[in-house]
Amino acid sequence: MRFFPAPIEISDDEGFSRDKDIFQRNAFAEGLTNLVTTSEDPLVILLDSPWGTGKTTFVKMWAGELRKQDFPVIYFDAFENDHVDHGFVAIAAEVIRLSQKLKKTKTPAYKRFIKTAGRLGGVLLRTSARVGVKAATLGAIDAADIESLKTVANDVAKEASTKADEYVESILKLQSQEKESLEALRSALAGLPEIFSDGKTGKRPIVFIVDELDRCKPSFALELLERIKHIFSIPNVHFILAAQLEQLENSVRFTYGNDIDALTYLQKFYNIVVHFPNPDRHRHERLIPKFVAHLHQSMSLDKDAMEIVTHIAEVRRLSFRTIERIATCVALARAFVPKNHLWISPIISVLCTMKIIEPDLFRRAREGRIALSEVTKFLATDNPHRDDGSLNVDWIIGWWNYCLADKELASSDPAAQPYRNYLFSYSIDRESIIPVMARYLDAFQSPQP
Asked: What is the pLDDT of residues 314-340, one digit of tens each?
């Protein structure tokens, strides 16, 4: 048994294979390809979608499709690189890797890029170092030191003035060098797409795919955006940023304060915002059942339990990442329930889902304080989203009603007979079923979304 879904392994040139493109986003990718192929202007496209909706899998598949069409593609995981001090260094390193992979390191264009990138990188490092030293010096002087400094102010005023002049002069020189180096680098970059082309399909633009930008440290994410705009905005170089716009706005507010208009600030860094197609346009396009079916096959999960999870996930529009965590909870619960002990899918699946998305409600169930009305509200059984008849709602609610009823139904009542038959081999009171099963789930801690 797997407790976590098997990662979808996608090779560099694989593209959208039928068995891995479970959301059938190939057509959407073709639209993006048309954008980067036909645009005469450099593009920065923001693929805006919440965490856990499959952005990483999609952009890796799309990168493979682009490579099949001889596009020079760079996939850059920003989160894995946010330990780097400078965004420019991280991006330039990816250009070098692509050049090495395509065996273009002996071309004049590559050598020119290396030379100009090294020059600009050195200038940027020196500039930031000087700013850092000045900031550190100011930070070392606190309010208590100011009074004592006044007594020597006149003695050091002349020397301080000279040092200040020298500092400003050095900064101006660095800024001049930065401008010259930047112009040289942009000129060198403009020639790379033609060098990367194999000559069979004509010149293809370089496509930079920047993934996980919204998970980076705010300082690194914003610096990366600034470098993309000011350094790499050149013809035949396109950037695709896979990130949730709301999270990027939070990075802006974290850096500049809550009073800033974060959305307006970010709009200067991208040209187009695109979203995954709406999966609710047609019933056959529903994505959550497809994703749950993938989890069921990958993890060998309880089919009945995951049917119930599918229903809750659809009516509550849960992210794929949250569904993964619920699936892990179901798998762990199965492992912690001893062999031949009671397992009731309508109880376990609902408890697992409660534990992940509404832990307070789960605690009430564990303590025997939950009401049937709370369960029916949680299940949203009156929601018309599911109308294909695949979910036996009466069986689910029936179990919770049987366990939570104020008093035992009469032995002659046919409504109670299926549940009594199921429990015939177990020594357990109906009032204890929910708390006991909840305690099975207490044996482990599930990750929260």
From this structure: 888 888 889 999 999 999 988 888 888
